[in-house]
Design brief:
With 167 residues, this protein is an alpha/beta fold. 38% of the residues lie in helices and 15% in strands. A five-stranded mixed β-sheet has the order 2-1-3-4-5. Strand 3, helix 4 (78-87) and strand 4 (91-94) form a beta-alpha-beta unit. The structure holds zinc ion (ZN). The site of zinc ion (ZN) has 6 residues, from helix 4.
Length: 167
């Protein structure tokens, strides 16, 4: 696999280990990772702390984004696609867009080259997370599931433990 996508997946896994949403991102310039990050919305209570934003923040002021490539395990949303367009990043490589279609069109409309690797590894990571934390995932993508959200469980659905007391 692409070593940069692998680094983005490592970031996503780190986020999951922290009790957060498993989305990771790296920014590559001149063949080197100049920034990396993951979604920290739960960890920091910050709705703006998407993986790509966290990555761009961590990269700091890199000067020109010419030739920079943004990797993300998931298709960027409008917020992050907006940052890509605003900063003049011209290439985005994503792990998958099956679990979230994101804002590919916005980027394509602004001459950003978008490549979807459609990786099972990235899709299954999100599928497992969304199944275990439907309300938390809904909050992240702006879908109200009508449920309270809290910290991610990082586990599959809890099985009810029923005691069999007999007669
Ligand atoms: Zn985003």
């Amino acid at each position: 696999m692409d070593k940069f996508m692998l680094a983005a997946i490592e970031e996503a896994r780190q986020g999951l280990a922290e009790g957060g949403i498993p989305i990771g991102s790296v920014l590559v310039k001149d063949g080197k990772i100049v920034g990396r990050g993951h979604n920290r919305r739960v960890q920091q209570g910050d709705p703006m702390a998407h993986a790509e934003i966290d990555c761009l923040r961590n990269a700091g002021r890199i000067g020109s984004y010419q030739g920079a490539v943004l990797y993300s395990t998931l298709m960027p949303c409008y917020l992050c696609a907006g940052a890509v367009v605003q900063f003049g990043i011209k290439e985005v490589i994503v792990g998958e867009s099956r679990t979230f279609t994101g804002a590919a069109e916005l980027m394509l409309d602004h001459d950003v080259q978008v490549t979807d690797l459609d990786l099972d590894e990235c899709a299954s990571m999100m599928e497992h997370f969304a199944a275990a934390n439907p309300a938390l995932w809904g909050e992240d993508i702006g879908e109200d599931t009508g449920k309270e959200t809290g910290k991610a469980t990082g586990q599959d659905l809890h099985a009810d433990q029923e005691e069999d007391k007999g007669e």
